[in-house]
Amino acid sequence: MSITRILLAAMAFTFAASCASTSAPDDAAGAAPALFVARDADSTMYIYGTIHLRRSGDAWGAPHVEAALAESEEIWTEVDLNPASEARAQTEAMRLGMSPETPLSSRLTEEDRQRLAALSQRLGIPVEALQPMRPWLAAMTLTVVPMMQAGYDPQAGVDRAVVAWGREHDRTLRWFETPEQQVGFFAEWDEETQVEMLLYAIEEAEGGVELINTISEAWDRGDIATLEAEAMTEVRTTYPAVYQRFFVDRNNSWMETLSRELDGAGVDFVAVGWGHVTGPDGLVAQLRARGVRVERVQ
User: Fold this and answer.
1) CB 3.0 to 4.6 Å from 139: which of 44, 121, 198, 248, for a disulfide?
2) Average pLDDT, integer, range 134-157
3) Domain boundary assignment for the chain
């Protein structure tokens, strides 16, 4: 299971982000990310595919994005991005992600224990710190740490910059999921799947940085084809159960909320991970299937 691809495409990961240093979002300039707009007779809904990890100071939008935000009355994100919500997520991650009575190494073969120890040493993570973790949390730790060491900061994610803009300009902030739900998407996997996630995280610890570089550059360009090819295609074709759980089911749930919004009047701005926006099961395709006119803004 490509944990790196799922992390980059699917989740806001407030429980991982709360471990990072806080940094102020930069101005929306220097990029041309993809933005869509859906319209009916009395409603406008902007759909913005975000990226959850960026380098501090990287552009989070562009003039066309900020113009859409200025027009909007409500801003939607995957999860509530405020300190209290993140504290709840951190607490839930520790509750569901720690299992000190069953050391992590006891779940691995001797060969895999050696691979884990070697990677931990290379990353500067004491292997003892990983021992009380369940495999899913250890996998996430080994995925995020190399990216942070390469300069990527969950606190610099595009979602956070959008929310910061909304707070500064007194917009109504709304969200689709709770922190507990987001943690649960990983914590509820069975033991075998979690160990598989961990082994893939060990394998991808170095390649994940190269992948996020590619994805970040494609996002800057608004290059949807590259984003799809680099991350979504493998998850969709090779791991259909994962794709169903992380993308299809959540998109379907969000669409019920967005349909109710379109039944009303006004202007909404929806900022969610880019993996939820495009593709055959994305929000854009689902809106069009319901007869809503959707166009790309830039």
Assistant:
1) 198
2) 90
3) 3-296
Q: What percent of the chain has pLDDT over 90?
A: 65
Q: How far apart are CA 20 and CA 37, in angstroms?
A: 33
**Distance between CA atoms of residues 298 and 295, nearest Å:** 9
Do residues 15 and 182 lie in contact, with contact meaning Cβ atoms separated by under 8 Å? Answer: yes
CB atoms within 10 A of CB 76: 25
CA gap 135, 246 in Å, rounded: 18
At 162, which amino acid appears? Answer: V
Long-range contacts (CB closer than 8 Å, 24 or more residues apart) made by 151-154: 151/55, 151/56, 152/53, 152/54, 152/55, 152/212, 153/20, 153/21, 153/23, 153/53, 153/54, 153/55, 153/56, 154/13, 154/16, 154/17, 154/19, 154/20, 154/52, 154/53
Q: What is the average per-residue pLDDT within 198-206?
A: 84
Rounded-to-integer distance, Cα 121 and Cα 106, Å: 19
Sign of the CA dihedral with 253 first, then 53, 221, and 69 last: positive
| Each residue's pLDDT tens digit, 163-198 | 999 999 999 999 999 999 999 988 998 999 899 889
Q: What is the pTM of this model?
A: 0.90
pLDDT band at 203 (very low <50, low <70, confident <90, very high): confident
